[in-house]
């Protein structure tokens, strides 16, 4: 989902789509949002919400504090001020958010009040920092003990223990792209399956891989290495995501041709559709059964919810002050709100689909930085347990 990867991955896209993506990339410059400013402030825990009860957060501990993963994160009681954009409502989030802060080469766990609760590499971890690449995505494992960080621009994937804060396993060769045994070329959205296998999309190689734990072993490969096109499962057009569905299937996003495919890991294709009026589809996933959410990695960008027939059920495409700039991942939260990383705007946001308003924001609009309250090209998000992507799907992943 990285900006640099997106530009590099544009080559295999059809001429029409590629030209449109380039035109959109040169489009509107980011402006300061009207509803949510970019100056950090401490939100009031007593603030009320127009779309969800504020009392659910108040002074209560976050989900990561009370879930079984608390021992993995070793979170201390929250202290100090938060750093959110003015007007942000902490009750919009059910718990903490894991952010892949790609431009700063770090992972952050941020609570609903904008406080950093956990960080990798540690601020004083020079050795960790040297060993870690630029995280494009980060997802918590089904058992809650590990974070899988895809270092897409570095052509590698790192498995990081939450409790130990160390890299325990590396897939691929750092900084060396390839298609031979042991190599990736722009891997994306790597996730651990319940049995320990690693699932990922290998964008430039136009394939989907399932790798076993331990020494490099391809358990399953969908697509034909280095041959790109839309004819799943034999061919994929630059796949940039493969996300689990609640029925045991998986949703694949293909950049080339603007496709979303419902498949299983045996290679059976249940249906394919075009996200409507989306120039650069990114990381389609399930909003709820029969409803699928996809980000349009463009400027101005958009977030769309569609059905399997490709019909639009909801579209968020603000203009002017609130225009999105290359959003790459959107996830629907349990309360119906939408969490998204707005990459080039250097922010993570929550949108209320009932009002089409941004109700929570961490990061300063279009201002990259490393201090508390700032991000730099955030390229991936996941919720802390028990709301994380793989934990909520763990009972059905790959089990139709």
Question: Which keywords apply here?
Answer:
single chain, 400 residues, mainly beta, Neuraminidase, 4-stranded antiparallel β-sheet, 6 helices, 9% helix, disordered N terminus
Task: Write a structural description.
It is a single chain. This protein has helices at 3-9, 15-25, 63-66, 70-73, 126-131, 389-393; strands spanning 97-101, 106-110, 116-120, 137-140, 146-151, 156-161, 166-172, 187-192, 198-202, 207-211, 218-222, 239-244, 250-254, 259-263, 269-273, 281-288, 291-296, 302-306, 312-316, 327-332, 338-342, 347-352, 357-362, 378-383. It is mainly beta. The chain has one domain: Neuraminidase, CATH 2.120.10.30. It is globular and about 50 Å long. The protein starts with a helix and ends in a 7-residue tail after the last helix.
> What's the end-to-end separation, in Å?
28 Å
Radius of gyration: 19 Å
Strand-and-helix sequence, N→C?
HHHHEEEHEEEEEEEEEEEEEEEEEEEEEH
Described by strand count, sense and barrel closure, the largest sheet is: 4 strands, antiparallel
β content, as a range? 25-35%
* Secondary-structure arrangement, i.e. CATH architecture: 6 Propeller
As laid out across the biggest beta sheet, the strand order is 3-2-1-24
The CATH superfamily appears as: TolB, C-terminal domain
Instruction: Give unreliable regions as ranges.
Output: 2-35, 37-61
- Into which percent range does the helicity of residues fall? under 10%
CATH topology-level fold name: Neuraminidase
Oligomer: single chain
What is the number of independent domains?
Answer: 1
How many DSSP helices? Answer: 6
CATH class: Mainly Beta
